[in-house]
Amino acid sequence: MLAVQAAGHDVRTVEGLARDDGRGGQVLHPVQEAFRECHALQCGFCTPGFLMTIAAGLEARDSSVEISDEEVDELAGGNLCRCTGYANIKKAVRHAAAAMRDAP
Question: Ramachandran region of residue 61, left (φ > 0), alpha (ψ -120 to 50) or beta?
Answer without folding.
Answer: beta
